[in-house]
């Protein structure tokens, strides 16, 4: 199954992200696109459910 998600780089790159993720972002012209991609992934991918053993 494919899922298409659209968003504006300027809006997505301003989204709140964890500080550690912002520190890993590359410097220079790719930074905004990189941050926008990570924000888009965090909005579209739901967290994994907790694994319960036993």
List the keywords.
mainly alpha, ACP synthase, 54 residues
Instruction: Note poorly predicted spans.
Output: none
Total DSSP helices: 3
Number of strands: 0
Q: Could you spell the SSE succession in H and E letters?
A: HHH
Mean pLDDT level: 80
Report the sheet with the most strands, covering strand number, pairing sense and barrel closure: none
What is the helix fraction of residues, given as a range?
40-55%
Rg measurement, Å: 14 Å
Shape: extended
Summary of the model, kept short:
The protein is mostly helical.
Describe the structure.
This protein is mainly alpha-helical and 54 residues long. It is built from three helices and no strands. The protein has helices at 9-12, 19-24, 31-44. It comes from Escherichia coli. This is ACP synthase.
Write the layout of secondary structure elements.
Elements: H1 9-12, H2 19-24, H3 31-44
């Amino acid at each position: 199954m494919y899922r298409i998600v659209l968003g504006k780089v300027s809006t997505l790159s301003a989204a709140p992200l964890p500080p550690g993720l912002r520190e890993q972002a590359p410097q220079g012209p790719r930074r905004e696109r990189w941050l926008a991609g990570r924000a888009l992934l965090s909005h579209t991918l739901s967290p994994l459910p907790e694994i319960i053993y036993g």
